[in-house]
Protein backbone atom coordinates (compact mmCIF):
# COMPACT_ATOMS: atom_id res chain seq x y z
CA UNK A 1 0.00 0.00 0.00
CA UNK A 2 1.40 3.41 -0.95
CA UNK A 3 2.20 5.74 1.99
CA UNK A 4 -0.56 8.22 2.79
CA UNK A 5 -3.16 6.36 0.73
CA UNK A 6 -6.48 6.11 2.54
CA UNK A 7 -7.70 2.62 3.35
CA UNK A 8 -11.14 1.47 2.31
CA UNK A 9 -13.29 -1.11 4.07
CA UNK A 10 -16.03 -3.29 2.69
CA UNK A 11 -18.55 -5.64 4.32
CA UNK A 12 -19.47 -9.20 3.56
CA UNK A 13 -22.27 -10.53 5.76
CA UNK A 14 -21.02 -10.12 9.34
CA UNK A 15 -17.40 -9.46 8.39
CA UNK A 16 -15.47 -6.31 7.49
CA UNK A 17 -12.32 -6.40 5.32
CA UNK A 18 -9.62 -3.88 4.45
CA UNK A 19 -8.46 -3.43 0.82
CA UNK A 20 -4.84 -2.90 1.83
CA UNK A 21 -3.71 -5.47 -0.73
CA UNK A 22 -2.31 -7.73 1.98
CA UNK A 23 -3.99 -10.71 3.59
CA UNK A 24 -5.38 -10.12 7.09
CA UNK A 25 -3.35 -11.57 9.96
CA UNK A 26 -5.67 -10.72 12.88
CA UNK A 27 -9.40 -10.68 13.51
CA UNK A 28 -10.87 -8.32 16.12
CA UNK A 29 -14.43 -9.01 17.31
CA UNK A 30 -16.55 -6.06 18.53
CA UNK A 31 -20.21 -6.65 19.42
CA UNK A 32 -20.23 -9.93 17.44
CA UNK A 33 -18.95 -8.19 14.31
CA UNK A 34 -15.65 -9.49 12.84
CA UNK A 35 -12.99 -7.01 11.62
CA UNK A 36 -10.20 -8.60 9.50
CA UNK A 37 -7.17 -6.32 9.99
CA UNK A 38 -3.36 -6.21 10.22
CA UNK A 39 -1.27 -6.51 13.37
CA UNK A 40 1.57 -4.10 12.66
CA UNK A 41 -0.33 -0.82 12.08
CA UNK A 42 -2.58 -1.58 15.06
CA UNK A 43 0.13 -2.56 17.55
CA UNK A 44 2.30 0.41 16.54
CA UNK A 45 -0.44 2.94 17.51
CA UNK A 46 -2.67 1.12 20.06
CA UNK A 47 -1.16 0.13 23.37
CA UNK A 48 -4.12 -2.05 24.33
CA UNK A 49 -4.06 -4.08 21.13
CA UNK A 50 -0.27 -4.37 21.31
CA UNK A 51 -0.54 -5.87 24.80
CA UNK A 52 -3.35 -8.22 23.77
CA UNK A 53 -1.36 -9.46 20.77
CA UNK A 54 1.57 -10.28 23.03
CA UNK A 55 -0.70 -11.98 25.58
CA UNK A 56 -2.41 -14.13 22.91
CA UNK A 57 0.54 -15.32 20.86
CA UNK A 58 -1.15 -18.56 19.91
CA UNK A 59 -4.28 -16.96 18.45
CA UNK A 60 -5.05 -14.35 15.85
CA UNK A 61 -8.46 -13.52 17.33
CA UNK A 62 -9.02 -10.70 19.87
CA UNK A 63 -12.36 -9.72 21.40
CA UNK A 64 -12.89 -6.15 22.65
CA UNK A 65 -15.67 -5.54 25.17
CA UNK A 66 -17.52 -2.33 26.14
CA UNK A 67 -16.13 -0.13 23.40
CA UNK A 68 -16.99 3.55 24.03
CA UNK A 69 -18.31 5.59 21.11
CA UNK A 70 -16.78 8.95 22.01
CA UNK A 71 -13.47 9.34 20.17
CA UNK A 72 -11.86 10.87 23.26
CA UNK A 73 -12.91 7.89 25.42
CA UNK A 74 -12.12 5.41 22.66
CA UNK A 75 -8.57 6.77 22.31
CA UNK A 76 -8.04 6.36 26.05
CA UNK A 77 -9.58 2.86 25.99
CA UNK A 78 -7.27 1.75 23.17
CA UNK A 79 -4.30 3.43 24.92
CA UNK A 80 -3.44 5.48 21.86
CA UNK A 81 -0.84 7.50 23.74
CA UNK A 82 2.05 9.49 22.28
CA UNK A 83 4.48 6.76 23.36
CA UNK A 84 2.92 4.65 20.60
CA UNK A 85 3.39 7.36 18.00
CA UNK A 86 3.62 11.12 17.83
CA UNK A 87 0.39 13.10 17.57
CA UNK A 88 -1.58 9.99 18.44
CA UNK A 89 -5.37 9.92 18.63
CA UNK A 90 -5.68 10.71 22.36
CA UNK A 91 -3.63 13.91 22.07
CA UNK A 92 -5.53 15.00 18.98
CA UNK A 93 -8.91 14.28 20.61
CA UNK A 94 -7.89 16.19 23.74
CA UNK A 95 -6.77 19.20 21.70
CA UNK A 96 -10.00 19.26 19.73
CA UNK A 97 -12.06 18.94 22.93
CA UNK A 98 -10.42 21.96 24.57
CA UNK A 99 -10.30 24.12 21.45
CA UNK A 100 -13.81 23.50 20.20
CA UNK A 101 -16.17 21.44 22.39
CA UNK A 102 -15.91 23.30 25.71
CA UNK A 103 -16.26 26.64 23.91
CA UNK A 104 -19.46 25.72 22.13
CA UNK A 105 -22.81 25.34 23.93
CA UNK A 106 -24.31 22.83 21.51
CA UNK A 107 -21.22 20.62 21.41
CA UNK A 108 -21.01 20.65 25.21
CA UNK A 109 -24.61 19.54 25.55
CA UNK A 110 -24.27 16.80 22.93
CA UNK A 111 -21.01 15.60 24.51
CA UNK A 112 -22.64 15.43 27.95
CA UNK A 113 -25.50 13.30 26.67
CA UNK A 114 -23.06 11.06 24.79
CA UNK A 115 -21.07 10.50 28.01
CA UNK A 116 -24.04 9.04 29.87
CA UNK A 117 -23.37 5.51 28.59
CA UNK A 118 -19.71 5.60 29.65
CA UNK A 119 -19.86 7.85 32.70
CA UNK A 120 -16.90 6.26 34.50
CA UNK A 121 -14.50 6.60 31.55
CA UNK A 122 -15.72 10.12 30.78
CA UNK A 123 -15.26 11.09 34.42
CA UNK A 124 -11.72 9.67 34.46
CA UNK A 125 -10.87 11.93 31.54
CA UNK A 126 -12.73 14.84 33.24
CA UNK A 127 -14.88 15.25 30.13
CA UNK A 128 -18.08 15.56 32.16
CA UNK A 129 -16.73 17.97 34.77
CA UNK A 130 -15.17 20.22 32.10
CA UNK A 131 -18.35 20.26 30.01
CA UNK A 132 -20.52 20.98 33.08
CA UNK A 133 -18.17 23.76 34.11
CA UNK A 134 -18.34 25.28 30.61
CA UNK A 135 -22.14 25.01 30.49
CA UNK A 136 -22.55 26.60 33.92
CA UNK A 137 -20.27 29.46 32.89
CA UNK A 138 -22.15 30.09 29.62
CA UNK A 139 -25.55 29.86 31.35
CA UNK A 140 -24.70 32.61 33.83
CA UNK A 141 -23.27 34.91 31.15
CA UNK A 142 -25.39 37.39 29.20
CA UNK A 143 -25.65 35.66 25.78
CA UNK A 144 -25.96 39.02 24.00
CA UNK A 145 -22.37 39.86 24.95
CA UNK A 146 -21.03 37.09 22.74
CA UNK A 147 -23.79 36.81 20.20
CA UNK A 148 -25.25 33.75 21.93
CA UNK A 149 -27.21 31.77 21.13
CA UNK A 150 -26.59 32.80 17.47
CA UNK A 151 -22.90 31.83 17.55
CA UNK A 152 -23.53 28.53 19.21
CA UNK A 153 -26.28 27.66 16.74
CA UNK A 154 -24.41 28.70 13.60
CA UNK A 155 -24.26 31.89 11.61
CA UNK A 156 -27.07 31.24 9.14
CA UNK A 157 -30.57 32.51 9.75
CA UNK A 158 -33.71 32.37 7.66
CA UNK A 159 -35.57 35.56 6.66
CA UNK A 160 -38.27 34.66 9.19
CA UNK A 161 -35.78 34.55 12.05
CA UNK A 162 -35.48 30.75 12.34
CA UNK A 163 -32.06 29.17 12.61
CA UNK A 164 -30.69 27.37 9.56
CA UNK A 165 -28.64 24.24 10.09
CA UNK A 166 -26.81 22.95 7.01
CA UNK A 167 -29.21 25.05 4.99
CA UNK A 168 -32.28 23.45 6.60
CA UNK A 169 -34.87 25.58 8.38
CA UNK A 170 -34.97 24.05 11.87
CA UNK A 171 -37.82 26.14 13.26
CA UNK A 172 -35.64 27.02 16.26
CA UNK A 173 -35.66 30.67 17.25
CA UNK A 174 -32.84 32.88 18.49
CA UNK A 175 -33.57 34.12 22.00
CA UNK A 176 -30.62 36.21 23.14
CA UNK A 177 -32.60 38.39 25.54
CA UNK A 178 -34.12 35.65 27.72
CA UNK A 179 -32.22 34.76 30.88
CA UNK A 180 -33.85 31.31 30.96
CA UNK A 181 -32.89 30.38 27.41
CA UNK A 182 -30.89 27.41 28.67
CA UNK A 183 -33.74 25.67 30.55
CA UNK A 184 -34.88 23.63 27.55
CA UNK A 185 -31.43 22.38 26.57
CA UNK A 186 -30.39 21.21 30.05
CA UNK A 187 -33.72 19.41 30.40
CA UNK A 188 -32.37 16.78 27.97
CA UNK A 189 -29.72 15.67 30.46
CA UNK A 190 -30.17 12.58 32.60
CA UNK A 191 -31.09 13.06 36.26
CA UNK A 192 -27.53 12.48 37.63
CA UNK A 193 -26.00 14.95 35.16
CA UNK A 194 -28.75 17.50 35.72
CA UNK A 195 -28.20 17.27 39.48
CA UNK A 196 -24.43 17.74 39.04
CA UNK A 197 -25.02 20.74 36.79
CA UNK A 198 -27.37 22.40 39.29
CA UNK A 199 -24.86 21.92 42.10
CA UNK A 200 -22.06 23.36 39.98
CA UNK A 201 -24.22 26.34 39.02
CA UNK A 202 -25.08 26.93 42.67
CA UNK A 203 -21.39 26.90 43.55
CA UNK A 204 -20.74 29.36 40.74
CA UNK A 205 -23.26 31.76 42.27
CA UNK A 206 -26.15 31.61 39.83
CA UNK A 207 -29.20 33.25 41.51
CA UNK A 208 -31.41 30.74 43.38
CA UNK A 209 -34.50 31.88 41.45
CA UNK A 210 -32.84 30.81 38.19
CA UNK A 211 -31.86 27.43 39.60
CA UNK A 212 -35.38 26.99 40.95
CA UNK A 213 -36.81 27.91 37.55
CA UNK A 214 -34.62 25.31 35.83
CA UNK A 215 -35.56 22.64 38.39
CA UNK A 216 -39.27 23.43 37.99
CA UNK A 217 -38.96 23.31 34.19
CA UNK A 218 -37.14 19.96 34.31
CA UNK A 219 -39.64 18.53 36.79
CA UNK A 220 -42.69 19.52 34.77
CA UNK A 221 -41.17 17.95 31.68
CA UNK A 222 -40.80 14.50 33.22
CA UNK A 223 -43.18 14.33 36.19
CA UNK A 224 -46.66 13.79 34.82
CA UNK A 225 -49.40 15.48 36.79
CA UNK A 226 -47.52 18.70 37.60
CA UNK A 227 -49.05 20.58 34.69
CA UNK A 228 -52.04 21.97 36.56
CA UNK A 229 -49.94 23.30 39.46
CA UNK A 230 -48.38 26.18 37.55
CA UNK A 231 -50.17 29.06 39.29
CA UNK A 232 -49.26 32.52 38.06
CA UNK A 233 -45.97 31.69 36.35
CA UNK A 234 -46.72 29.79 33.20
CA UNK A 235 -43.69 27.74 32.13
CA UNK A 236 -44.71 27.03 28.57
CA UNK A 237 -42.64 24.72 26.42
CA UNK A 238 -39.77 26.69 24.91
CA UNK A 239 -38.83 26.67 21.25
CA UNK A 240 -36.32 23.93 20.56
CA UNK A 241 -32.73 25.00 19.96
CA UNK A 242 -30.14 23.42 17.72
CA UNK A 243 -28.65 21.75 20.81
CA UNK A 244 -31.93 20.08 21.72
CA UNK A 245 -32.51 19.08 18.10
CA UNK A 246 -29.25 17.13 18.35
CA UNK A 247 -30.26 15.41 21.57
CA UNK A 248 -32.78 12.83 22.70
CA UNK A 249 -35.11 13.33 25.69
CA UNK A 250 -33.69 11.74 28.81
CA UNK A 251 -35.02 8.40 30.00
CA UNK A 252 -36.11 9.26 33.52
CA UNK A 253 -37.18 7.20 36.50
CA UNK A 254 -39.80 9.53 37.98
CA UNK A 255 -39.27 8.40 41.55
CA UNK A 256 -35.49 8.83 41.32
CA UNK A 257 -36.01 12.24 39.73
CA UNK A 258 -38.34 13.45 42.47
CA UNK A 259 -36.14 12.20 45.30
CA UNK A 260 -33.14 13.87 43.65
CA UNK A 261 -34.60 17.31 42.90
CA UNK A 262 -36.14 17.72 46.36
CA UNK A 263 -32.58 17.79 47.71
CA UNK A 264 -31.75 20.59 45.26
CA UNK A 265 -34.67 22.87 46.10
CA UNK A 266 -33.62 26.00 48.00
CA UNK A 267 -35.24 27.43 51.12
CA UNK A 268 -37.44 29.72 49.06
CA UNK A 269 -40.85 31.32 49.53
CA UNK A 270 -43.41 32.31 46.92
CA UNK A 271 -46.99 31.60 45.90
CA UNK A 272 -46.09 29.82 42.67
CA UNK A 273 -43.26 27.94 44.38
CA UNK A 274 -45.56 26.82 47.21
CA UNK A 275 -48.09 25.60 44.66
CA UNK A 276 -45.31 23.75 42.83
CA UNK A 277 -44.23 22.09 46.09
CA UNK A 278 -47.79 20.94 46.80
CA UNK A 279 -47.95 19.51 43.29
CA UNK A 280 -44.66 17.69 43.91
CA UNK A 281 -46.07 16.29 47.14
CA UNK A 282 -49.07 14.84 45.31
CA UNK A 283 -46.80 13.14 42.77
CA UNK A 284 -44.53 11.96 45.59
CA UNK A 285 -47.45 10.27 47.34
CA UNK A 286 -48.49 8.58 44.10
CA UNK A 287 -44.95 7.34 43.37
CA UNK A 288 -44.34 6.23 46.96
CA UNK A 289 -41.08 8.11 47.54
CA UNK A 290 -38.98 7.44 50.63
CA UNK A 291 -39.95 8.98 53.97
CA UNK A 292 -37.03 11.41 53.96
CA UNK A 293 -38.11 12.93 50.64
CA UNK A 294 -41.76 13.22 51.71
CA UNK A 295 -40.80 14.77 55.05
CA UNK A 296 -38.54 17.29 53.31
CA UNK A 297 -41.37 18.35 51.00
CA UNK A 298 -43.81 18.70 53.89
CA UNK A 299 -41.32 20.86 55.80
CA UNK A 300 -40.74 23.14 52.81
CA UNK A 301 -44.50 23.57 52.40
CA UNK A 302 -44.96 24.16 56.12
CA UNK A 303 -42.44 27.00 56.03
CA UNK A 304 -44.76 28.91 53.67
CA UNK A 305 -48.18 27.50 54.48
CA UNK A 306 -49.71 31.00 54.55
CA UNK A 307 -49.09 31.16 50.77
CA UNK A 308 -50.93 27.92 50.01
CA UNK A 309 -54.35 27.82 48.37
CA UNK A 310 -57.22 25.63 49.47
CA UNK A 311 -57.47 23.67 46.21
CA UNK A 312 -53.76 22.82 46.33
CA UNK A 313 -54.02 21.73 49.96
CA UNK A 314 -56.87 19.29 49.25
CA UNK A 315 -54.52 16.35 48.66
CA UNK A 316 -56.41 13.13 47.85
CA UNK A 317 -55.64 9.89 49.64
CA UNK A 318 -53.74 7.61 47.26
CA UNK A 319 -53.36 4.69 49.68
CA UNK A 320 -55.96 2.21 50.89
CA UNK A 321 -57.38 4.66 53.43
CA UNK A 322 -61.17 5.08 53.74
CA UNK A 323 -60.99 8.87 53.77
CA UNK A 324 -61.09 11.00 50.62
CA UNK A 325 -58.34 13.41 51.62
CA UNK A 326 -54.94 12.95 53.20
CA UNK A 327 -55.59 14.98 56.34
CA UNK A 328 -52.69 13.29 58.17
CA UNK A 329 -50.31 14.88 55.67
CA UNK A 330 -51.95 18.30 56.12
CA UNK A 331 -51.70 18.01 59.90
CA UNK A 332 -47.96 17.32 59.64
CA UNK A 333 -47.58 20.36 57.38
CA UNK A 334 -49.36 22.49 60.00
CA UNK A 335 -46.98 21.23 62.68
CA UNK A 336 -43.99 22.08 60.47
CA UNK A 337 -45.46 25.56 60.00
CA UNK A 338 -45.71 26.06 63.75
CA UNK A 339 -42.14 24.83 64.28
CA UNK A 340 -40.83 27.18 61.59
CA UNK A 341 -42.70 30.11 63.17
CA UNK A 342 -41.13 29.34 66.57
CA UNK A 343 -37.70 29.31 64.97
CA UNK A 344 -38.24 32.47 62.94
CA UNK A 345 -39.97 34.56 65.63
CA UNK A 346 -37.91 35.51 68.71
CA UNK A 347 -39.48 35.89 72.11
CA UNK A 348 -41.37 39.17 72.51
CA UNK A 349 -42.17 40.90 75.82
CA UNK A 350 -45.84 40.80 76.86
CA UNK A 351 -46.23 44.52 76.09
CA UNK A 352 -45.30 43.90 72.47
CA UNK A 353 -46.81 40.44 71.97
CA UNK A 354 -50.37 41.80 71.85
CA UNK A 355 -49.57 44.09 68.92
CA UNK A 356 -50.18 43.03 65.33
CA UNK A 357 -46.94 41.56 64.02
CA UNK A 358 -46.08 39.86 60.71
CA UNK A 359 -46.02 36.57 62.58
CA UNK A 360 -49.52 37.06 64.01
CA UNK A 361 -50.86 38.02 60.58
CA UNK A 362 -49.30 34.88 59.12
CA UNK A 363 -50.88 32.79 61.87
CA UNK A 364 -54.30 34.28 61.16
CA UNK A 365 -53.95 33.53 57.43
CA UNK A 366 -53.10 29.92 58.20
CA UNK A 367 -55.96 29.57 60.70
CA UNK A 368 -58.40 30.80 58.06
CA UNK A 369 -56.93 28.34 55.54
CA UNK A 370 -57.17 25.44 58.01
CA UNK A 371 -60.78 26.32 58.90
CA UNK A 372 -61.69 26.36 55.20
CA UNK A 373 -59.86 23.05 54.75
CA UNK A 374 -61.86 21.46 57.58
CA UNK A 375 -65.09 22.79 56.06
CA UNK A 376 -64.18 21.09 52.74
CA UNK A 377 -63.20 17.71 54.19
CA UNK A 378 -66.08 17.71 56.71
CA UNK A 379 -68.43 16.19 54.14
CA UNK A 380 -66.34 12.99 54.05
CA UNK A 381 -68.53 10.45 55.85
CA UNK A 382 -65.45 8.39 56.79
CA UNK A 383 -63.66 11.24 58.53
CA UNK A 384 -63.35 10.38 62.21
CA UNK A 385 -64.24 12.90 64.97
CA UNK A 386 -60.73 12.50 66.38
CA UNK A 387 -59.22 13.73 63.09
CA UNK A 388 -61.45 16.80 62.79
CA UNK A 389 -60.60 17.58 66.40
CA UNK A 390 -56.84 17.18 65.95
CA UNK A 391 -56.96 19.44 62.87
CA UNK A 392 -58.88 22.09 64.81
CA UNK A 393 -56.52 21.92 67.78
CA UNK A 394 -53.35 21.84 65.68
CA UNK A 395 -53.19 25.64 65.81
CA UNK A 396 -53.05 27.59 69.07
CA UNK A 397 -56.28 29.16 70.32
CA UNK A 398 -54.77 32.62 69.89
CA UNK A 399 -54.50 32.16 66.13
CA UNK A 400 -58.24 32.76 65.66
CA UNK A 401 -59.60 36.22 66.45
CA UNK A 402 -63.05 34.83 65.57
CA UNK A 403 -64.24 31.22 65.79
CA UNK A 404 -66.85 31.58 63.04
CA UNK A 405 -64.82 29.48 60.58
CA UNK A 406 -64.34 26.76 63.18
CA UNK A 407 -68.06 26.75 63.97
CA UNK A 408 -68.92 26.52 60.26
CA UNK A 409 -66.59 23.52 59.80
CA UNK A 410 -68.12 21.66 62.77
CA UNK A 411 -71.65 22.48 61.60
CA UNK A 412 -70.88 20.97 58.18
CA UNK A 413 -69.31 17.95 59.90
CA UNK A 414 -72.46 17.39 62.01
CA UNK A 415 -74.60 17.75 58.89
CA UNK A 416 -72.59 15.02 57.10
CA UNK A 417 -72.52 12.81 60.24
CA UNK A 418 -76.07 12.93 61.68
CA UNK A 419 -75.51 9.62 63.50
CA UNK A 420 -72.93 11.06 65.89
CA UNK A 421 -73.92 10.66 69.58
CA UNK A 422 -74.66 13.83 71.54
CA UNK A 423 -71.63 13.19 73.75
CA UNK A 424 -69.23 13.21 70.78
CA UNK A 425 -70.90 16.35 69.45
CA UNK A 426 -70.45 18.05 72.80
CA UNK A 427 -66.78 17.04 72.93
CA UNK A 428 -66.19 18.54 69.49
CA UNK A 429 -68.11 21.71 70.37
CA UNK A 430 -65.81 22.24 73.34
CA UNK A 431 -63.16 23.26 70.79
CA UNK A 432 -65.12 26.45 70.06
CA UNK A 433 -64.56 29.55 72.14
CA UNK A 434 -68.11 30.95 72.17
CA UNK A 435 -66.88 34.34 73.29
CA UNK A 436 -65.13 34.58 69.91
CA UNK A 437 -68.28 33.98 67.87
CA UNK A 438 -69.69 36.97 66.04
CA UNK A 439 -73.28 38.07 66.73
CA UNK A 440 -74.34 36.57 63.40
CA UNK A 441 -72.68 33.23 64.19
CA UNK A 442 -74.29 33.22 67.63
CA UNK A 443 -77.69 33.91 66.11
CA UNK A 444 -77.22 31.02 63.67
CA UNK A 445 -75.97 28.63 66.37
CA UNK A 446 -78.82 29.45 68.74
CA UNK A 447 -81.29 28.15 66.14
CA UNK A 448 -79.15 25.25 64.87
CA UNK A 449 -80.90 21.94 65.57
CA UNK A 450 -77.71 20.00 64.85
CA UNK A 451 -76.02 21.30 68.00
CA UNK A 452 -76.46 19.56 71.39
CA UNK A 453 -78.80 21.12 73.97
CA UNK A 454 -75.96 22.14 76.31
CA UNK A 455 -74.23 23.94 73.44
CA UNK A 456 -77.47 25.82 72.68
CA UNK A 457 -77.50 27.00 76.27
CA UNK A 458 -73.90 28.18 76.10
CA UNK A 459 -74.46 29.98 72.82
CA UNK A 460 -77.57 31.74 74.15
CA UNK A 461 -75.71 32.83 77.26
CA UNK A 462 -72.81 34.36 75.34
CA UNK A 463 -75.10 35.90 72.74
CA UNK A 464 -77.07 37.54 75.55
CA UNK A 465 -73.83 38.90 77.02
CA UNK A 466 -72.72 40.26 73.63
CA UNK A 467 -76.05 41.95 72.97
CA UNK A 468 -76.15 43.52 76.43
CA UNK A 469 -72.64 44.86 75.90
CA UNK A 470 -73.66 46.26 72.52
CA UNK A 471 -76.82 47.75 74.03
CA UNK A 472 -74.81 49.42 76.77
CA UNK A 473 -72.36 50.88 74.26
CA UNK A 474 -75.21 52.15 72.10
CA UNK A 475 -76.90 53.78 75.11
CA UNK A 476 -73.70 55.65 75.93
CA UNK A 477 -73.42 56.91 72.39
CA UNK A 478 -77.04 58.10 72.33
CA UNK A 479 -76.56 59.85 75.66
CA UNK A 480 -73.49 61.63 74.34
CA UNK A 481 -75.32 62.66 71.19
CA UNK A 482 -78.31 63.95 73.12
CA UNK A 483 -76.02 66.33 75.02
CA UNK A 484 -74.83 67.79 71.72
CA UNK A 485 -76.52 71.05 70.51
CA UNK A 486 -79.26 70.40 67.96
CA UNK A 487 -78.19 70.28 64.34
CA UNK A 488 -79.06 73.26 62.19
CA UNK A 489 -80.44 72.70 58.72
CA UNK A 490 -77.30 74.23 57.32
CA UNK A 491 -75.04 71.72 59.09
CA UNK A 492 -74.22 69.48 56.20
CA UNK A 493 -71.37 67.07 55.96
CA UNK A 494 -69.96 66.87 52.44
CA UNK A 495 -67.36 64.25 51.53
CA UNK A 496 -66.15 62.82 48.23
CA UNK A 497 -68.83 64.69 46.36
CA UNK A 498 -71.68 63.10 48.32
CA UNK A 499 -73.94 65.20 50.57
CA UNK A 500 -75.53 63.59 53.64
CA UNK A 501 -77.46 64.84 56.67
CA UNK A 502 -76.14 63.52 60.00
CA UNK A 503 -78.91 61.56 61.77
CA UNK A 504 -77.00 59.54 64.31
CA UNK A 505 -79.53 59.94 67.10
CA UNK A 506 -82.36 58.42 65.08
CA UNK A 507 -80.21 55.46 63.95
CA UNK A 508 -79.04 54.76 67.49
CA UNK A 509 -82.56 54.81 68.89
CA UNK A 510 -83.76 52.28 66.30
CA UNK A 511 -80.76 50.02 67.02
CA UNK A 512 -81.39 50.17 70.77
CA UNK A 513 -85.01 49.14 70.35
CA UNK A 514 -83.97 46.15 68.24
CA UNK A 515 -81.30 45.12 70.73
CA UNK A 516 -83.71 45.38 73.67
CA UNK A 517 -86.20 43.22 71.80
CA UNK A 518 -83.55 40.60 71.00
CA UNK A 519 -82.24 40.53 74.59
CA UNK A 520 -85.79 39.96 75.81
CA UNK A 521 -86.21 37.04 73.40
CA UNK A 522 -82.91 35.54 74.49
CA UNK A 523 -83.79 35.77 78.18
CA UNK A 524 -87.06 33.94 77.52
CA UNK A 525 -85.29 31.25 75.48
CA UNK A 526 -82.56 30.93 78.10
CA UNK A 527 -85.08 30.43 80.92
CA UNK A 528 -87.09 27.96 78.86
CA UNK A 529 -84.01 25.83 78.17
CA UNK A 530 -82.96 25.89 81.83
CA UNK A 531 -86.39 24.59 82.82
CA UNK A 532 -86.21 21.90 80.15
CA UNK A 533 -82.79 20.77 81.39
CA UNK A 534 -84.09 20.62 84.96
CA UNK A 535 -87.03 18.42 83.90
CA UNK A 536 -84.68 16.12 81.98
CA UNK A 537 -82.44 15.86 85.02
CA UNK A 538 -85.28 14.86 87.41
CA UNK A 539 -86.70 12.39 84.92
CA UNK A 540 -83.33 10.64 84.87
From TrEMBL:
It comes from Lactuca virosa. SUPFAM superfamilies: POZ domain. InterPro entries: NPH3/RPT2-like (IPR043454), NPH3_dom (IPR027356), SKP1/BTB/POZ_sf (IPR011333). Keywords: Coiled coil, Ubl conjugation pathway. Residues 505-532 form a coiled coil. Belongs to the NPH3 family. Residues 180-466 form the NPH3 domain. Pathway: Protein modification; protein ubiquitination. This is NPH3 domain-containing protein.
Amino acid sequence: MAPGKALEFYQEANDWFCNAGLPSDIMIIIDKVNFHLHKFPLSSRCGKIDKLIKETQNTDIITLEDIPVLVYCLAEYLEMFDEYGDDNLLARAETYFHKHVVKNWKDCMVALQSCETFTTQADNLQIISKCLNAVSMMACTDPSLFGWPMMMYGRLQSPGGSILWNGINTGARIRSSESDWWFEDVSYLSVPLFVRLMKMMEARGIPPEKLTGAIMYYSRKYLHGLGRWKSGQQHTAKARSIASLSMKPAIVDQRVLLESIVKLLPEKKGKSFCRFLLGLLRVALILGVNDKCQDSLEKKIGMQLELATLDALLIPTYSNSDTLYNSDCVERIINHFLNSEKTATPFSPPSIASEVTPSSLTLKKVSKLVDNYMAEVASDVNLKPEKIRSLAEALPESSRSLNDGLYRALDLYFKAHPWLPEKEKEDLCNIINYQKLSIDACAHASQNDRLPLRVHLQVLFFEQMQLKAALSASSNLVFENQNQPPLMASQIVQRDGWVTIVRENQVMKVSMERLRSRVGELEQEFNRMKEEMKRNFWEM
